């Protein structure tokens, strides 16, 4: 039976009320699949694409457990949630506080970038749920300031990212410190790769594996295309033009390196566009301020590196721009997942220089979808479209040679079926599909400019 309403999940009235306050009418696919086994107390190994509601998928069963088994006197945290970044920790805590509005549950965060003493209250007051990044938490554990013994549930959010960021050992250490826990849940955008599988095996016990393909309703409606650019000045001009278009209401612009964040902020300022930015080295207060300026609508453009932006849920992002293409195709998916959240439409636009075409080809193969190029008339690139070879695709010549070879082989095996239409076409071979792409920009030309 598939769950289609939150009330079917037998959640406490206080949680159902909070869901209603938030306007969540139906559970998403991952929520519908993960919540029932989690409520039974099973370990969970969960994967679902970005933006499909994984946070509530673990917060709701966690809170239900705390409500079902209320503590008799105040004490240290019973639930520990680990996230890869400070921003994500704060967002998860925020989400938890909203879901807990009609309850008496206490929620706190422990992250770096906060004055050390500000955590004093976390240690002295009652805490039910603590959301933490690993570094600072471990420091407190080592100094015996943080008591892990009451932890009943451990949750790893964005586990794939935590591994990428090199936190595996930290997490295993924390796992050891919380060895009296009864339940562990691991959530990730993907479960691809041996590293994450091994990791899950060490941390989880007979987990319920839930991997939700989002329903059509939730599936991302992200329109994606790219503009070819001659160089970085050209990319900047394209970006300035695009940011000025009326449907571009709230954007995240991704760049590859921290230095580029500051450069680009300057270039856009010169063009009269105010931005805020996020990069890994910023102090916490500055990061919060940047996110707040964007969500308050004081600025409409956030420039960010991947490390800084991971997992952040900024509502109503109309456009994601890849000012620099990411090196990894999975990063591309994560970036564009910042727009079109929870079933809304979004747009992802990449700016592509000649040397990026190999990466672009990789991305297209990864997302199994060709990306179309568009042109802004007054900002036409002067360089020509690179050949397929640059995209890592076999050239026409190579393809033809492969086909010949295959035919030869088939013949010698005597398996080839002689069809009348094949014999008829000898000598005027049909054009391979690639040849039709010689002027892909003609049909994609932007009407507005
Ligand atoms: P993920 O962790 O999978 O990337 P989040 O938990 O951050 O996704 O949720 C993405 C967005 O969807 C958030 O804005 C969240 O408030 C919203 N959301 C989550 N669950 C639901 C639901 N059942 N109905 C509507 N919106 C939801
Ligand atoms: Mg998440």
What does this entry look like structurally?
- By secondary structure, the chain is an alpha/beta fold.
- The protein folds into 2 domains: 6-211, Rossmann fold (3-Layer(aba) Sandwich), CATH 3.40.50.300; 216-391, Rossmann fold (3-Layer(aba) Sandwich), CATH 3.40.50.300.
- Helix content is 40%, strand content 14%.
- The protein has helices at 13-22, 29-39, 54-68, 86-99, 120-124, 134-142, 159-164, 168-177, 194-203, 232-243, 258-270, 284-295, 306-309, 329-336, 357-367, 396-413, 420-425, 441-444, and strands spanning 44-47, 79-82, 107-110, 129-132, 153-156, 183-188, 208-211, 221-228, 251-254, 276-278, 301-304, 319-322, 345-352, 372-374.
- A 7-stranded parallel sheet has the order 3-4-2-5-6-1-7. The protein has a 7-stranded parallel sheet with strand order 10-11-9-12-13-8-14, with helices on both faces.
- It is globular.
- It starts with 12 loop residues before the first helix and ends in a 5-residue tail after the last helix.
- Mean pLDDT is 85; it is low at 422-430 and 432-449.
- Magnesium ion is lined by residues 54-55, 157-158, 311.
| Tally of helical segments | 18
Poorly predicted runs of 5 or more residues: 422-430, 432-449
Distance between the termini: 51 Å
- Whole-number total of structural domains: 2
**What structural class do you assign from the helix and strand content?**
alpha/beta
* Total number of beta strands: 14
What is the CATH H-level superfamily of the largest domain? P-loop containing nucleotide triphosphate hydrolases
- pLDDT averaged residue by residue: 85
- What is the approximate shape? globular
Q: Remind me, CATH topology of the largest domain?
A: Rossmann fold
What multimeric state do the chains show?
single chain
> How is the largest sheet built, in terms of strand order?
3-4-2-5-6-1-7
Beta fraction: 5-15%
Molecules bound to protein: adenosine-5'-diphosphate, magnesium ion
**Which percent bin holds the helix content?**
25-40%
Any idea what the CATH architecture of the largest domain is? 3-Layer(aba) Sandwich
